[in-house]
Amino acid sequence: MFSVKGYGAIITGGASGIGLAFAEALAEGGARVAILDLDSNSLNLQVNRLSAKGFDVRGRELDVTNRKEIDQAFAHIAAEFGKVDVVFANAGIDPGIGFSNPDGTRSQEGAIENYEDERWDRNIDVNLNGVFATIRAAARHMKGSGGGSIVVTTSVAAYLNEGMVGAAYMAAKAGAAHLARNAALELAHFNIRVNAIAPGFIVTNIGGGWLKQPQIQKSIGDMIPIGRIGSADDLKGLALFLASQASSYITGAQIPIDGGGSL
Ligand code: NAD
């Protein structure tokens, strides 16, 4: 029921953190995996590492904000795999600044009246426009191939206010979440399911790896009902569930995976 054996999977932002965990989960389950990522060093490293374990994994360097590159990558990978069954629109960035500092004081730089154009634009470009480009490319392919599953990595910041992550991230994630719901409604008729995973605090390289600091992990862990910060591996089960037929009657859902942090 949870099998992804023989599936063709595309994962954006799969060279690090949560996307890498998705890639591992799918590859371990017997899927053929294509990782699309901006960071060529991490991409090569991870593709070589997973290939050396005998998994069917390949990589392609691209920026999800480049729609032409996304379309070309999908065409190329679809031709190689024959069929793309699962697409994870996961690539994302954290602007690293909001209206409040980690110590609770107000941030001047992250205040709305001081928010820089470039920071706003890049965030919306990657975290919202990149998801649009990925969903569109997936829909074009899946409509002609009998269906599939699209999974968008949003965030609990799509529906919670988090002063530290700031205006652009929250707006982009809320936009991506609603875009996923719209796509779910529009594409259900074509046997294409679209769901979102909304992580809480997960230790990855995002935001310069600030969540890797032990004292930050402890203070966040103390606020989380389950009692600890999350790891990328915590997301593997949900990724397999949403990719596989185990979730065949679920579409348009956004599932929090945050140790109860948003309760
Ligand atoms: P990460 O930095 O470890 O990994 C992100 C990956 O995306 C990197 O490999 C990076 O090179 C790639 N990427 C960034 N911009 C790209 C672009 N324009 N084109 C292609 N690839 C690009 O971070 P992560 O925490 O694994 O983040 C993955 C997703 O999870 C993001 O969408 C993020 O917003 C979301 N998320 C993370 C957390 C968390 O606490 N880590 C919480 C909620 C949501």
From TrEMBL:
It comes from the Bacteria. GO terms for molecular function: oxidoreductase activity, acting on NAD(P)H, oxygen as acceptor. Keywords: Oxidoreductase. The keyword Phosphoprotein does not apply. Pfam families: adh_short_C2 (PF13561). The keyword Oxidoreductase applies. PANTHER family: BENZIL REDUCTASE, CHAIN DEHYDROGENASE, PUTATIVE (AFU_ORTHOLOGUE AFUA_4G08710)-RELATED. Belongs to the short-chain dehydrogenases/reductases (SDR) family. This is Short-chain dehydrogenase. It comes from Bradyrhizobium macuxiense. The lineage of its organism: Bacteria, Pseudomonadati, Pseudomonadota, Alphaproteobacteria, Hyphomicrobiales.
